[in-house]
TrEMBL record:
The keyword Amino-acid biosynthesis does not apply. One of its GO terms (cellular component) is membrane protein complex. The keyword ATP-binding applies. This is ABC transporter ATP-binding protein. The lineage of its organism: Bacteria, Bacillati, Bacillota, Clostridia, Eubacteriales. SMART domains: AAA (SM00382). It comes from Inconstantimicrobium porci. It comes from the Bacteria.
Length: 234
């Protein structure tokens, strides 16, 4: 089964009296375990598309299926559950809570969902290990660099063990060296932990970390290419 199936997706916004069609007729699929980069120019509708895929906004027409489920047919209560348990989001500007510690930021989705934190102690340690932030677990975001803050945001997206993680310009706010480290972390999350990743980006360099690239231009997909994977040294 496809992780994501998008069919004839359209999205328009009303601007004054005019209706502007941002996504014109988009169809594609993402297989489980893929790491797809959706590339396109600024203002080209990438974030709009990502929000539709993650159920944060509704299409004007067409459909998005996640694991075979048509999002337009999912009731609001089930949708919130789906968004919590199956889908993670990472944004350009981390969106951490400034006065909470690293570990409290990571556990915030659990707190909001009424989960018992002690059931997740092992999970938290494991995730802190993956993102390499064990030693900084008691610090607050203002004591961290941008790259470290993004690692915390990634950990927060992982805490419910989502199957799919959506990334909106995840290194757009970072210098190139830190950005490369964060992209390596996403690659590891894709390859070693089997998560399906979909990132939108305007940067060719970060797009190349994925397993395939979809190019979006003028609200339409112009190509999907599968990238050659480097052979792993044994
Ligand atoms: P990208 O992420 O590729 O830079 P966006 O998806 O953010 O592009 O925006 C695409 C276009 O849609 C832009 O022209 C933007 O102004 C417009 N747009 C996005 N969201 C809204 C909205 N909620 N209301 C009106 N216009 C919007
Ligand atoms: Mg955007």
């Amino acid at each position: 089964m496809d992780a994501i199936r998008v069919t004839n997706l359209k999205k328009s916004f009303k601007v004054g009296k005019e209706s502007v069609e941002v996504l014109k007729n988009i169809s594609f699929t993402v297989e489980k375990g893929e790491f797809v980069s959706i590339m396109g120019p600024s203002g080209g509708g990438k974030s709009t598309l990502l929000y539709l895929l993650g159920g944060l906004d509704k299409p004007t027409s067409g459909s998005v299926e996640i694991n075979g489920k048509d999002l337009s047919k999912v009731k609001e209560k089930e949708m919130s559950k789906l968004r919590r348990n199956k889908i993670g989001f990472v944004f350009q500007f981390y969106n951490l809570v400034p006065n909470l510690s690293v570990e409290d930021n990571i556990m915030l989705p659990l707190i909001l969902d009424g989960k018992k934190l002690k059931d997740y102690k092992g999970k938290l340690d494991e995730i802190l290990d993956i993102i390499g932030m064990k030693a900084k677990r008691k610090m607050t975001p203002r004591e961290l660099s941008g790259g470290q803050q993004q690692r915390v945001a990634i950990a927060r997206a992982l805490i419910f063990e989502p199957e799919i993680i959506f990334l909106d310009e995840p290194i757009g706010n970072l210098d190139s060296k830190t950005g490369a480290e964060i992209m390596e972390l996403f690659r590891k999350i894709n390859k070693e932990y089997g998560k399906t990743l979909v990132q939108v980006t305007h940067s060719e360099k970060s797009a190349e970390y994925g397993t395939s690239i979809i190019r979006l231009l003028d609200g339409q997909i112009v190509s999907k290419e599968v990238l050659e994977q480097e052979e792993e040294a044994i």
